Each structure stands twice: as structure tokens, then as C-alpha cells.
Amino acid sequence: MDGRCVLSYGGDCCRPDLALNDYLDFDIVNRPSREPGLQHWRWQRGSAIALTPFGLWFIFQMLLMPDFDYQTIAPWLATTFNSFAMTVLLTTLLVHSLLGLQVVIEDYIANPLQRALIRITRFIGIAILVAAIISIFAI
């Protein structure tokens, strides 16, 4: 053996009889995860990537605004592209924030309350998103 070993699950002792090369034959090391953590990670990164161009678009649009009163914002938001882009921005922002809140809840809240709090935050987030989208298209 070349000194490499795999830590046993549930313990922190290194067993020299289980070399990493022994596991490569069984495809344990390189098999895809069946845990939802990988999917969560992909959604978090994907929403962050989608937020970048829409967030920059929103910042530049707000910097170019001469005034922030209703008479200026309403016609700007009434255009098709701006209402679509704002809807996509708010949706990706909601997805990204809910995924982040889920991680915080899973890490810092006791196990019996986790599912209930995650469902409550999702319900509140989706209610806010629906109200925002209705408000955008009502203009």
C-alpha cells in the first residue's frame, strides 16, 4: 500500500487495510450523489448566475432614472421588456433567497421546527412574489 486510506464512516480512524484504490473498483468514490444537496447547490448557483445580468440591468436602469416618483416609474415599468425583466429578476431573487434561507434554517434551527419554518418561509415568499407580479402587470 502507498499509505493512502479511506476514513471509515462514522469514525475518525484511518484503516490501512482499505486503500483508496480498493474502492475505485466498486465505483463508490465517483458515483453521483443521491442526496438533494447537489440539486440545491445547482439551483443556488444557477439563480446567482441569472441574478447577475438582471441585477446589473436593474442597477443601470435606476441610475439612469431622472426621478423616482410614480409618474416616472409607471410608464417605464409598463413597457413589455421592463415588466418581463423585472418579473424575471424578482422570481430569481425569490428562488435564490429562499434557497439561502433554507440553508440557514437547516443549519441553525432545531430539527422538529425545520420543515415547518421552511414551508412558512416558502409560503410567505411565494405570496410576496405573486403580489409583486400582479402589481407589475396591473400598471
pLDDT < 50 stretches = 5-12, 20-30
CATH topology of the largest domain: 3 helical TM bundles of succinate and fumarate reductases
Distance between the termini: 71 Å
Order of strands, main sheet, comes to 1-2
Count of β-strands = 2
Domain count: the total is 2
Nearest-integer average pLDDT: 81
CATH classification, class level of the largest domain: Mainly Alpha
Task: Look at the structure and name the CATH superfamily of the largest domain.
Answer: Fumarate reductase/succinate dehydrogenase, transmembrane subunit
Given helix and strand content, the structural type is mainly alpha
Beta fraction of the residues?
A: under 5%
Please give the share of residues in helix. over 70%
Tell me the series of helices and strands, N- to C-terminal.
EEHHHHH
Q: What is the CATH-assigned architecture of the largest domain? A: Up-down Bundle
